[in-house]
Amino acid sequence: MAPRTPRIVVPIDLKKRPWEQTLPLHNRWHPQIPAVAEVTAGEFFRVEMVDWTAGCIGDNDSASDVKSVDLSTVHYLSGPIRVSDEDGIPAKPGDLLVVEICNLGPLPGDEWGFTATFDRENGGGFLTDHFPCATKAIWYFEGIYAYSPHIPGVRFPGLTHPGIIGTAPSKELLDIWNVREREVEENGLQTLKLCEVLHARPLANLPSTKGCLLGKIEKGTDEWEKIAREAARTIPGRENGGNCDIKNLSRGSKIYLPVFVEGANLSTGDMHFSQGDGEVSFCGAIEMSGFLELKCDIIRGGMKEYLTPMGPTPLHVNPIFEIGPVEPRFSEWLVFEGISVDESGRQHFLDASVAYKRAVLNAIDYLSRFGYSKEQVYLLLSCCPCEGRISGIVDAPNAVATLAIPTCIFDQLLQDIRPKSSKVPTGPRLMRKPDVMKCTYDGNLPITRNPSAASSSD
């Protein structure tokens, strides 16, 4: 007998807002957000998702929607989904929830996505001191491939994956998150810069009732007010998985998630058609609506059996991920290196973040010599299937980070991007227009400029 088609446990109507869905969405982590659906271990089921903004970013010719986006709503998630075994016994705290990604993709009729940078006054990002303006590029899908009219001359297969997949925290774990994140926000570096070189504020995103959506819990009730003041934002990855943005979690992958509450309460969202390692522009994958077709299993007592706490309590654990067998094949790469020396020439001690920033800046400046604007390259490196590595972390004082770009994503008839004796470039120059859509930056924060950089765009 042929297997059944997957049961849709969380349907999505793209014409409706998140709170209007048949099963309302949520955008916070909290143990008291009630499950909206239930599945049985071994069952083949389907979860549909809006893009992380639920349609606030449009397929249009302006980046103003990115500049003014309300980041208090990040991210809209489908779920929670309660998981029980074949005997009807729910997953228990201390178990491992095994989530297998059988299939995934964009929602039919919505085969497009976007990549963007936030305005420095509203979200910022990894290189916000170099790129303070809100920008946006639209991507269209042709089967497994993506192309953009705003970044011409590139086409690549997507390694599609969910940016967020995780279980609900217990109240004890939620309290741990809120205490430690409030401490770093209130007592962390008071300068503008994080790690003395990365321009990032805030240092943490603390619970906030603004923009909060709690699924079935009705806004305005005493219950809603209490939970909204405690519920954790979905922005960082944590012990429960969450916003890990691991690009290789595609078809055939398995995620081994710790269970902290009865039923596990699995949630997922933030679908990406493609992403580069690090998602460096912050709104940096090809963001889209989509679906996951999943199967779950429960390993009883699996947390103690397989996960070693890296902290003071048994809750200080992290998921394990098993990468699937279906990935694009690339044979030729151009690799850019960075070291722990910032743009001012200052030496940092084994700082991998500074080294990766340097590697990304090196790649942006290099590719801008071939006719691209630097904004085009920044968005491209955030969403194409490039690979980032911490290549050295022991040789004081320099950590070494690398960024590898598959050369075949570039149209070889237009451009061979490798260095060669005949200088730059040998083929026809790519046109910088149309460029990515770009807003003005109206803030007063200082902008980092590299006086030695190529001058194709500032």
From TrEMBL:
A Pfam family this chain is assigned to: FmdA_AmdA
SUPFAM superfamilies hit by this protein: Acetamidase/Formamidase-like
One Gene Ontology MF term: hydrolase activity, acting on carbon-nitrogen (but not peptide) bonds, in linear amides
Top-level taxon in the UniProt lineage: Eukaryota
InterPro entries membership: FmdA_AmdA (IPR004304), FormamaseFmdA (IPR054833)
Gene3D superfamilies associated with the record: Acetamidase/Formamidase-like domains
PANTHER family linked: FORMAMIDASE C869.04-RELATED
Protein's recorded name: Formamidase
Organism of derivation: Saponaria officinalis (Common soapwort)
Species lineage: Eukaryota, Viridiplantae, Streptophyta, Embryophyta, Tracheophyta
